[in-house]
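Q: Hi! Curious about what DUF1013 domain-containing protein looks like structurally. Here's the sequence.
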Amino acid sequence: MAKPIMARATAVWLVENTTISFKQIADFVGMHELEVQGIADGDVAAGVKGFDPISNNQLTQDEVDAAEKNPLHKLKLKFNPAAVGEEKRRGPRYTPLSKRQDRPAAILWLVKFHPELTDGQIGKLIGTTKPTIQSIRERTHWNMANLQPIDPVALGLCRQSELDQVVQKAAAKKEAEGAVMSDDERRKLVSTEQSLGMETEPRIPTAIEGLETFTLGGSKDKDEEVEEDERDLRDAESFFNLPKSEENEDE
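A: Let's find out. The predicted structure is below.
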């Protein structure tokens, strides 16, 4: 389904100027319902100026009126002949100039926490080149000493849904190849809900690892200890049982 241009600014305008539900706005602009609610609460898109979709030939007033009267009505983007074929255009992701300096930190985060991703997947995800990714993998980047891994979603270089989709593809490919994954790798490659449902293997705490077959040397059973005590008592009695002298025998 075609989406309006300047989707977030359009959502801001619809929240401020109409009574359309958050779900209807989210479906129209391609955002999550909670994001639209965040716009209404002032937590999302702070400072973004609303973009009027009616005056900019993306919506008709009739569509807005119908959506306000019927919460189940889905807004339809106004047909724009100039936009035909735009969705089929493919190419590198455009990254604003203000965020291009953050890409190395995002690459380092992806290389560190998702090593299963290929250079091509990382390049498409955050809009960078393979030589840059390779230089960070080999730690030959000119600013490597000052780089800190930062989540690309937090930097605004991609959406969480896009990152999850790429990671899920990597998981499916690895599973198809029959590779064995550790618990940590599985938690990285699958969603949180799936990871929580997995059975974890029992582990021995690191503090006592290797001591599961260890026993204290010289330990004795209780019966052996009793016999030893009785033997000690007999020895004590024999020690004080001195032989009688001849004088004592005559008496």
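A: A fun detail: Residues 7-87 form one domain.
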